[in-house]
Write a structure and sequence with these properties.
Strand content: under 5%
Helix content: 55-70%
Distance between the termini: 34 Å
Largest sheet: 3 strands, mixed
Shape: elongated
Low-confidence stretches: 173-193
Structural class: mainly alpha
């Protein structure tokens, strides 16, 4: 879905529905830049990150309930301190690192997906450089953020680029930018692509 909004953002709902705000289109600059965004968001859907986040939130809540029960006979101040420490500890020690892991995984898979679809994965680096430049204000340190820092993200993309380029066939088997298939498939060929290794 394309939503008319000035936010420079896109996201994927649990279940795979992708939302792209029109505010990101000037940053994408072209179809290849939009392929970076779509590959990243589709990767979130395929990797089931939305459901993983919901499960992690439920686990965090369950731990909070268990801690609350364990502290029920303690003074209110002690309970409040422990619960606050638990909340901060799980947020910074578990939830944010998992969120950054999901974002990095979506960057990696998205890079490969766009290459398979016939888009030049090298455009991902320049897209994220433009995203970094478009961000206004100071950014929190990486350990306090849901996303990897721009520097980490770009470094990772450059590290993964040789793998992604193996899947990039702009005119051939991997796909094409026109969205029109050739209508033919070699006998015995498969649509299954092994990623990694």
């Amino acid at each position: 879905n394309l939503v008319k909004d000035n936010q420079v953002n896109a996201w994927c709902m649990p279940g795979g529905k992708v939302v792209v705000y029109t505010g990101i289109l000037p940053v994408t600059q072209d179809e290849n830049g939009l392929a970076v965004v779509m590959g990243h968001e589709i990767a979130h859907a395929i990797a089931d990150h939305g459901n993983e986040r919901m499960s992690q939130g439920l686990l965090q809540q369950t731990g909070g309930v268990a801690l609350s029960i364990a502290l029920q006979n303690k003074p209110a101040e002690t309970q409040a301190l422990w619960m606050m420490a638990y909340g901060v500890g799980t947020y910074y020690g578990a939830m944010l690192p998992y969120s950054r892991l999901h974002e990095s995984e979506a960057d990696h898979l998205g890079l490969i997906f766009m290459a398979i679809a016939g888009y030049d994965p090298q455009g991902a680096v320049s897209f994220w450089q433009r995203m970094s430049a478009a961000a206004s204000g100071e950014k929190p340190p990486e350990f306090m953020s849901t996303h990897p820092s721009d520097e980490t993200r770009i470094s990772n993309l450059q590290k993964w680029m040789p793998e992604a380029l193996k899947y990039y066939h702009p005119e051939g088997n991997g796909g094409n930018k026109s969205g029109k298939g050739s209508g033919t498939k070699k006998k015995g060929s498969s649509n299954v692509v092994k990623i990694g290794g």
